[in-house]
Every structure is written in structure tokens, then in C-alpha cells.
Amino acid sequence: MRDETIDTHCPYCALQCGMKLRAAPDPADGTERTVEVVERTEFPVNRGALCGKGRTAPAVLSSRVRLTGPLVRSHATGRLEPATWEEALRTIADGLSRTRAEYGADAVGVFGGGGLTNEKAYTLGKFARVALGTSQIDYNGRFCMSSAAAAHTRAFGLDRGLPFPLEDIPRTGCVILVGSNLAETMPPALRYLTELKENGGRLIVVDPRRTRTAEQADLHLAPRPGTDLALALGLLHIVVSEGRTDDGFVEERTAGWPEARAAAMAHWPELVERITGVGVPQLREAVKMFCDAPTGMVLTARGPEQQSKGTDTVGAWINLCLATGRAGRPLSGYGCLTGQGNGQGGREHGQKADQLPGYRKLDDPAARAHVAEVWGVPPESLPGPGRSAYELLDALGQDVRSLLLMGSNPVVSAPRAAHIEERLKSLDFLAVADVVLSETAALADVVLPVTQWAEETGTMTNLEGRVLLRRKALTPPAGVRSDLEVLNALAGLLGHEKGFPTDAEEVFDELRRASAGGPADYSGITYRRIAEEDGVFWPCPDGTDDGAAHPGTPRLFLDRFATPDGLARFVPVTHRPAAEEPDAEYPVLLTTGRVVSQYQSGAQTRRVGELNTAAPGPFVELHPQMAERLGVAEGDPVAVVSRRGRAEGPARVTNGIRPDTVFMPFHWPGAGRVNTVTNPALDPTSRMPEFKVCAVRVEAAGPRPGVPGTV
């Protein structure tokens, strides 16, 4: 019936906004069935609000923009040609088997994505370790919030993006938002900050650009890119020197304060001003706002996290929360605004190189034994930890000779992207499963067309730790199969005919068993409960001591932290420069980010006419002073050049960016592919690349007679 709708969720960011889908009846003339997005006002996260990406999401379901049949590269022509599913799957199985036989299991790699459902992520990790026997698996979520995850675990013993629901944000007294432009990256979430201010709360935004989000702030701090760590330490120094620490909380609920305090006291305000460019009066005003409020939160995003010192930077902001008693209490705490749709669940259940389902560590004998029992294999058969995402991509064509890639587009999204493109081209064999022919898929030997969000059922875990249910609303095209069907078929061809179900709920029930007793315990969550309760927050064990169903855990750490002794850990950290600082040859800082109308590598959103009209290509945002030195005006072509490569785009001249900094969005391939320029330097703990800061020079790209055109 035309009036019937299906409750589901947006396919894009980690808000996982609720929406309804209404599919029209099959048209009599044989044209494509249309799908309409309808508001789902009762879902608490977005309360019906959607950004342009969510509203237009059904456009990518069209056969005009998506893959509808397998492609295999012809030996005769060198081109990708239509093939049968049987031919495509057999070609993949043969390619992976040949590599494994000649070079060993670890010569086969698997690369996943933060947009895969929990069921797919779980099965992909199991497939790598059981069917292939390889340790070489990671995913693009490593590029998302791995630094925050490492810092969260180090301080609190457990990582969940937000340890409280979004609904708590408007009720706190002060929010420090670090390196996030919610107005562009998660527009429906901006209402939480608007409501915060309406309720009398204060908002401090830390960003080198005066973004649409920063314009909402009571106080905007614009530090030099790569100096967020010094900024946080300077604020903590002022907290201590002004006697604003919560000594009772520190004594009762934390450990390690003396060492962290000593480290912070080495960062006096005047030194921090010289490092960051943020004036001492602004530093003191930020401390006053934060500490005068009865409750407070610090929320970070990719700005401070995508750095070669991202873990320590997030740790410094956590130290600020702990020292002021803004953690483990109602309406207070540190949280990370996860980026990708299932960036949280994707790493909890086995895509990450060092983790098993339930957020268990792969090198923990007890964890290995538990998961091996669920999988029906000997614990010793499970490989150990493998390479992190960038290190895995960098090893392609050398130690890793064949790759199965699902739901990622590293040709655009990886740091030092031109180098990674060459590494992909050097592979003996590449297979890609995706919904569109992305720039990475175009390099593959085999491309498999897989189902999309509206064509399948499965769970996602949003930035709050709320496990949600996407529901199938329509039948996919005849030539398309689900990722679960792909992995089932490949496992069978590799000699594992059992253990890889194709039904999502059956996979989820196995995931529940595998996660039981782990840090991310999903064992008490069922599809029925998710549907009835608008999602269930993990951890949610299977029952309580009195036999009742566990309610889930919307708010973590209120009684104790997840460390062995229940105490949060201060970690002493010290500012250090970015991996690449400006010099005479490359005197300018580059930072990167997103725009509201595009998403991640743009593989899908660039195929939506309305979104592409709103944001048709890359640009270089620069200050008027820099534009004057270059001799360029608004719209003139500009090039950004680093030691690794070059990216171009029209100039966007604005006073809303620091004079020593330029900004480029990262959604486009070709001449505007900014990740050709970015630095792959890795955080030593999280292995996060330094996307957010590198040294560049800026040039006028077009012919401009008589103008030197370089800064």
C-alpha cells in the first residue's frame, strides 16, 4: 500500500538519524520504483530533522548511478567487463587462494569500512581470521576516531563515543567543542547546542576556522592547527593555578593526578599563547566559563584526533574534565563525536587489526578462547594482531599481495593518496565490493555490486552507543547481492561451507554470543528490543542478577569507571609539535575537513544531483592577507603543494580562517584530491594519520603575468 512506511535510519553519519521510507508500487511501465523519505518525528536522536544528504539518500538506489552486476577485468582488453556472479566469485576465490598458497596467509589483506552494519563488520572479521587465516585486516574507521578511542580506554578503561545520550547536552552548564563543525558535519545535532544556549548554558568552540558552528559560540578559540594539545594543557594550568580543581573528586575517583598536574604546570599561559596564537585573556575566559558552570562537557571530533599526537591531545582534554570533576557525574563528561555511520560498531566487532568481537583484545588468551569457541575453531588457529589501516595500505604489492576491500574508497580518503593509489595498482589481485564504481573499485580485478541500506536489514551503533535497526524497505536489483551473501559464497569456495550465515538476525545472534562478557557486551540486545525501545545502549548483558532483562546503559561511569579498581586514570602528556612544521619552502599550514552537502570520499554523494549542485567541487579557503600576497581573488585557481603532492581548487577568500592557514575539503578525486597532500605520519598509540595539519606552500595556479604568486 502507498501509505505504508518502514522505520529505518539514514545511511550516512554516526547520528544515524531516524527516518521512514515509503516505496511506491512497482510501476506498470517497467520504470524504476521510487522511494520517498518521510519524517520519523518520534525517534529521539533527530526528532524528524534530516540534512540534505539524508533527504536525498534514495537517489543512490537508482540503477542510473549504482552497480547492478558484477564486473571482471578482461585479460584481452584490460577493461572491467560484465560477468556472472559465479565467474566473479570464482575469480576472487582463485585470486586469494593463489596468493595464500604462494606467499602465505598474511599476504592476503582485508580492508573494511565504517559504514558496514555490525553484522557485516563481524562477519568480515571472522572471514579474514577463519576463512583466510590472515592477520592483515583493518578498516577506514581507523581514520575516524581511533585516537579518541585509545585515550578513552586509557583514561576510563572503556571506549564509547559518548558516555551519555545526546539529550544530556542541552542540560549541561558548559560545552567545550573541540575541532568539530556540527553545522556542516551533523546538521541535525546542532539543535542540541542551540537548546544548550536557550537553557542558559555556555558554548566554547575550538577551531582554527570561524565555521558556522563557531559563530554560535559564546567564545571562539582559534588555535594554530596542531596545537590543541598545548591549548588543553594551558587551560589545565590555569585551573590549577586559580584553585579550581575538584580535589574531592580527584582524591576519590581518580589516580595519577600528581604526574599529570606536574606536566600541565610546565605549560604556563604565556607559553601557550605563543604556541597556539590564543591570547591569555581568552584562555582565562574559557576556564571561567567552564568552571563557573555547575556541570560541563568536553566534546572532541576529528580536529584534535587526526593528528600524530591525537591520543595525547584527547588525553589532555580528558585530564581537564577529571581535574574539574566533569566526568563520571550526571550531565558531565568527555565524549567523542564519532564520524562514520558505524564507526563505533565497526571497530567493536572485529574489523580492527587488534580486536575481536565485543571489543576484546586479540592478544588476550581469554578473549581468543571465548571467541574461538563461538566460532568453533581452536584458539591457536586465530592469527595475532595485524597492521593498522595506513600501514596495511602502504604494504600493498609488497608484503600484502592480494586485497579484498568492502565499503571504502582509499584512493580518495587515505593520506598520501597518490602513493596509496600506486600501491593498489601494484597488487597481484584486488577485489572490491561496493554500491557504486568508486575510484578504488575502478582499479579492481573484480567488482561486486552489493545491497544498500534500504535493501537490507542490519544493526548500526551510533555515536551514543545506541544500537539501532535498519530495516529492509525494498528488494534490490536482480544482479545485486548482500555482503553477507558474498562472504558466505567466498567462504564456501575456500572450504568453509558452514559458519557464515546470510540472514542478518542469525548473524546478530551469533555476534551477541561472541560479545557476551566483553567490554562491548551486546548479549542482551535483540532485534525485537531495538524496535520496541528506539535502540538499546551497550553494554547490555543478557539479564541481571535478579533475572530481569538488562535495561542497557545510556550513561556510563556514574558509579565507577571501567578500570580494574574503578578509578579514572590521569595520563601525563606534554605538547610536542606536529610531525611537519612550516619552514621556508613550505611556510603555510593546511587543515582539512568536510562540507555539508558531501560525505567522506564523496563516492555516493557526488552522484546525487542536488548535493553536487550545492557543492560541485573542491576549494581552497584562505585569509584575505594571503590572497593579497598571492595576487588572487575569489574564485581564482589556487594550488596547495606539500612534499607529497599537489591539490588545486578555486580560492574562497574569508576572514574566518587564520592568516597562516588554508583549508580544503576532502570529498573529491582528481586535481582537488587534498589527501594527495596530507601527511601519513601516525600517532604512536592509535596509528591515526595526521590528516589535520601539514606544511604546504600556496600558489596561484592559473597564468597570472607579472604576479609572483607563491606563499
Low-confidence stretches: none
Shape from CA axes? globular
Overall helicity: 25-40%
Largest sheet: 7 strands, mixed
Structural class: alpha/beta
Number of strands: 30
Approximately what portion of the residues adopt beta-strand conformation?
Answer: 15-25%
Rounded mean pLDDT score: 95
Task: Summarize the structure in words.
The chain is an alpha/beta fold and 711 residues long. Helices cover 30% and strands 17% of the residues. Strands 5-4-18-17-16-6-7 form a seven-stranded mixed β-sheet, covered by helices on one side. A six-stranded mixed β-sheet has the order 24-26-25-30-23-27. Helix 7 packs across helix 9 and helix 7 (228-241) runs parallel beside helix 13.
Please specify the SSE layout and strand pairing.
Elements: E1 6-9, E2 18-23, E3 35-39, H1 52-55, E4 71-73, E5 80-82, H2 85-103, E6 108-112, H3 118-132, E7 137-139, H4 146-156, E8 174-178, H5 182-185, H6 190-198, E9 202-206, E10 219-221, H7 228-241, H8 247-253, E11 254-255, H9 257-265, H10 269-276, H11 280-292, E12 297-300, H12 302-305, H13 310-323, E13 333-336, H14 343-348, E14 355-356, E15 360-361, H15 365-375, H16 389-394, E16 402-406, H17 410-413, H18 417-425, E17 429-434, E18 446-449, E19 458-461, E20 466-470, H19 483-493, H20 504-515, H21 527-533, E21 536-537, E22 568-569, E23 588-593, H22 609-614, E24 620-622, H23 624-630, E25 637-641, E26 646-653, E27 661-665, E28 679-682, E29 689-690, E30 694-700
Helix pairs in contact: 2-19, 3-19, 3-20, 4-13, 7-9, 7-10, 7-11, 7-13, 15-20
